[in-house]
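Quick one: structure for this chain?
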Amino acid sequence: MRAALLSAAAAAVVVAACAKPVKPGDPVRGLTREQRDRFRRGGEVFDTVFTAATGLGPLFNSTSCGECHEDPVAGGFGDEVEVHAAAFHPGAPCDPLVHQGGPVIQQDATPALKTALGVEREPNPPDATALARRTAPVVFGRGLLDAVPDSALLAYADPEDRNGDGVSGRPNHFFDGRIGRFGRKALVPTLGEFNEGAFVLEQGVTTPAIPTEETFGGRPLPAGVDPAPDPEITAEIVALTDTFVRFLGAPTPLRPSAEARQGRDLFGRIGCAACHVPALRTGDSPIAALRRREVGAYSDLLLHDMGPELADICLGDATPSEFRTEPLIGLRLAARFLHDGRATTAEQAIELHGGEAGGARTRFLALTPGERAALVAFLKTL
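Got it. Here's what it folds into:
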């Protein structure tokens, strides 16, 4: 099945080459005039810089969405690294340490909060069993990933590894039992929830759906440090931001050279496509531009055990060593790789894969230098 998907993805590249390519930052093709206008207006909100007077903080990681998703355009990669925390004890449910300020630990504070508490940032939770570093990925094509039915993801799940290939992906589940797909641990079920949560978690900006501020290490914020009344933005501002992210297209892969075509074949042959599924198909959608479309996700959006070297925190059902297969959309634009940015090249990132990816890594390392270069050349087309 995955071999067929590789062929389908290759065919899609050929078709895309005949059409006008989607550049980084472009909207998906097929939007109406009204949708394009809301995409434009949403982009303005995405780049809006908040201040304490307009709702920033008092605890925050960034002053705008665009500050963390900026390279090479709005929606791209960011150079910020934030900190997450949780407590994991085998046999017990994962504790996101909300009562101590987790799972996202804000790295900055407004001058009013710094003066009131004499601190520069939120403290790490004392009960954390691990801290995690997280870089900001691209958000290109996330509306398409949101439109992929749960059934399509479950079709790739093999928690008992019944086919014996060493790969046993499984879904994460949100706190209410829904299947997750967004975030490095695939906890959040929908793009809308992920986008709205980012306002509060990353910028300290409250919304009608989330009208209360984050605590300071689990303690209420001191009086007088937050001058903006809650909720600090309207539902329409949230909706415009969501529209911008939802309509960001997946950049068209570059036309592959002969070397990159060889690398594409090797990608499938050594087992990378067992998790990095080349193509997913969206289902029904009220938005025609997102309906029944093939997206070059290079992900199954499932959890996979990546081994102890990459392990950090638990989240939901995900154990410390489990991560969602990272979509490779826009990979050619990346300067750093993996969830924490520790790898500076794609080849180094592959070499750090362990656990269920250990077999593919071993086969990659067994390739000739020319074959490894070809596989990396293929990745640089995505």
